Amino acid sequence: MSLLREIQKDAVNSNVSVSDLLRKCKILAYRLGNEEFKSWVEFELNGYEFDHLVPEYRIIYVGSKGHFVGSFGKSFNNADIPTHGLPEDLRKICTKASFTNPIAALESYAANDKNGQLTQSWNLAILAKYGSNMYSDLNCIQAWKVIPIASVIGIIDTVKTKILNFVLEIELINPEAGEAELNSNPIPQDQVSQVFNINIVTGK
Fold first, then answer.
1. 67 has which bridge partners?
2. 3-state SS of 25-88?
3. Residue 9 — very low, low, confident or very high, per pLDDT cuts 50/70/90?
4. Which residues have C-beta within 8 Å of that of residue 166, sequence separation ≥ 6?
5. pLDDT tens-digit map of 16-72
6. Is residue 28 within 8 Å of 3, Cβ to Cβ?
């Protein structure tokens, strides 16, 4: 079976991890000699070092909860946090969760608890400045973003779909591209880049 067909088969097999699928994509990337595809595979396997490199499909909109305290022992725990009182730039930060982790970490989260949720803590500096502006006579002492595991599963599924779409398009151009020698350019680089941008960068 050709490498392109192996990747296609694995992409629709729920028993094959996306990490293993990406390792086959790494072989393909080197045979195609395409730097954009190589970089994307490396980021997905090893994680995104900087937030500005994280692709849109790894960023999800979330709600937040927190613990609040007030005078005379008053408290309000696990309460929904209203963010409309935050400056626009902070509101964007606090209503989005960005996943920089390697894809294997996301797969581990999903495997351990398919119906649960993850959390990401708020920056304490935000609470220090705006924690008293959320509920009357209460101050927020702890806050976290609530991330459904279903959203993480969605990210994993998106990566698999992007890989499948990319490989199918490559096969249409050259069915033997996956068997080529390393960096032999079995497909012109401008064509590979076009397929990459359509199916990986902008595709669903």
1. 142
2. HHHHHHHHCCHHHHHHHHHHHHCCCCHHHCCHHHEEECEEEEEEEEHHHCEEEEEECCCCCCCH
3. very high
4. 37, 195, 196, 199, 200, 203
5. 999 999 999 999 999 999 999 999 999 999 999 988 899 999 999 999 999 999 988
6. yes
Return the number of other C-beta atoms located less than 10 Å from residue 166's C-beta.
Answer: 23
The amino acid occupying position 136 is S
- Confidence label for 114 from pLDDT (cuts 50, 70 and 90): low
Question: CA torsion, points 182, 48, 53, 29, in degrees to nearest 10?
Answer: 10
At 182, the pLDDT band (50, 70, 90 cuts) reads: confident
Amino acid at 154: G
Nearest alpha carbon to residue 168 among 5, 24, 2 = 5
pLDDT average, residue stretch 91-107: 93
pLDDT greater than 80 at residue 115: no
Strand 117-121, strand 63-70: pairing? unpaired
- Which residue, chain included where needed, has tokens 């296609």? 8
